[in-house]
Amino acid sequence: MPELPEVETVRRGLQHLITGYRIVQADDLHPRALKSESIAPLSTLNGARITGTGRRGKFLWITLDRPFVLVAHLGMSGQFLIQQKDRPSPKHIRAQFALKRSLRKLDLVFNDQRTFGWLSIEELADGVPTSATHIAHDPFDPHFDYQATITKMAQRNIRIKTALLNQEIMSGVGNIYADEALWRAKVHPESLTSELSQKKIASVIDAASEVMREAIAKGGTSFDDLYINVNGESGFFEQSLSAYGREDEPCPRCGALIKRIVFGARSSHFCPRCQRKKS
Ligand SMILES: [Zn+2]
Q1: 140 Cα: distance to centroid of ligand 1 (angstroms)
Q2: Ligand 1 centre distance from Cα of residue 256 (Å)
Q3: Which of 68, 73, 173, 245 is 20 to 30 A off residue 238, Cα-Cα?
Q4: Nearest to residue 191, comparing CAs of 148, 241, 157, 146?
Q5: Domain Formamidopyrimidine-DNA glycosylase catalytic spans what residues (predicted)?
């Protein structure tokens, strides 16, 4: 599932590739491609010029020379791809956009196998699309309030993993990077935030920022200029994971076998030796 680093990689790719292009024709090819909250049909984009991109957490948007933006959420498997003549056409195209900039043409498609992703035309409120206004800043956002986020977590009495995944406290962290951050900070995923010191919570937030920054950097270096891709869990960062998806493999730090537990309907991977639960 795409998390912040993957979404940011896609945003950077789009920013680089399609800014300045005009949308000649936009078509949705699946009844669920466009969210029901969209204020207009996709064809409203016809004739609009792309001026840039934005992101809040895992919400991504394309800004236009219009009083609205095109919002995209990649869901579980959403991808933006530039169609290439020498490559087979993607199998799950939900929407397509014919783009033009003077004599140059591009065919951008939104491909989504599992259809949890969506597109939507929305207005901006304080610089953010209406569907993303409840989403908190992520650690890379210049408006991210580090101390306030630590305080917010410390004031709750919830498991640290649950707090990390709560997009209204801090956005961007999904299951993979939550497990990695907790492993790096040596904190058990079930530790209660009220029982952790502010220093410990800070170290978890720092670890989450660090691991996501590394993933963004890798996404950037492996980025193919003409092929914007999000490969979710089996993506480019997989080789660098220390805990996530490594059940029964040795902890890279101490050699104990990584354990997997399930709570909150999600798997958590941790090292039982490095990440002891506070008793
Ligand atoms: Zn360990």
Answers
A1: 28
A2: 5
A3: 73
A4: 157
A5: 2-117
Cα 198 from chain centroid (whole Å): 26
Burial 48-78 (b: 16+ CB within 10 A, else e): bebeebbbbbbbbbbbbebebbbbbbbbebb
Distance 211 CA to ligand 1 centre (A): 17
Distance in Å, CA 265 to ligand 1 centroid: 24
Residue 186: active-site member: no
Is residue 276 annotated as part of the catalytic site, yes or no?
A: no
Per annotation, catalytic residue among 55, 56, 58, 152: 58
Domain segments of the chain as ranges = 4-132, 146-270
Q: Which of 186, 266, 272, 273 is catalytic?
A: 266
Fold of 146-270: Helicase, Ruva Protein; domain 3 (1.10.8)
SS3 state of residue 131: helix
Mode of pairing for the β-strands spanning 124-125 and 128-129? antiparallel
ipTM over 0.95: yes
58 is catalytic: yes
Alpha helices, H only, 156-241 = 160-165, 175-185, 198-221
CB neighbour list of residue 181: distance below 8 Å, 6 or more residues apart: 164, 173, 204, 205, 207, 208, 210, 211
- The CATH architecture that domain 4-132 belongs to is Alpha-Beta Barrel (3.20)
pLDDT in tens, 43-83: 999 999 999 999 999 999 999 999 999 999 988 888 888 88
